[in-house]
Known about the structure:
The chain is mainly alpha-helical and 101 residues long. It has helices spanning 7-20, 22-32, 43-56, 58-75, 79-99. InterPro entries: Lysozyme-like_dom_sf.
Amino acid sequence: MIGKAHPSIKFQMFDAAVNHGRGNAIRILQRAVLVADDGAWGPLSQAALNSMQDLRGHNDVLLRFLGYRFKFWARLAKFDAFGRGWTNRGADNLIFAAEDN
């Protein structure tokens, strides 16, 4: 799906897809790479990912992705009930991302 991406980005995408569904995971990555978040991964999304990784490094993409993922959680209606667990998962993913680089 996301072709040429650093393995740490692929891991985070997999984790997001399992938890939020493929379309939402794609939308979050699209926001991170500054393209329209339509949930369909196509050539423009891939080009934006490639460009951002090449110009700014995969860590920028990774941090932006995780930041937008926290924003996604915060907008969910069930955040009051489940937000503590979601943010804990996000914190674990940040720690894993730091170790995975």
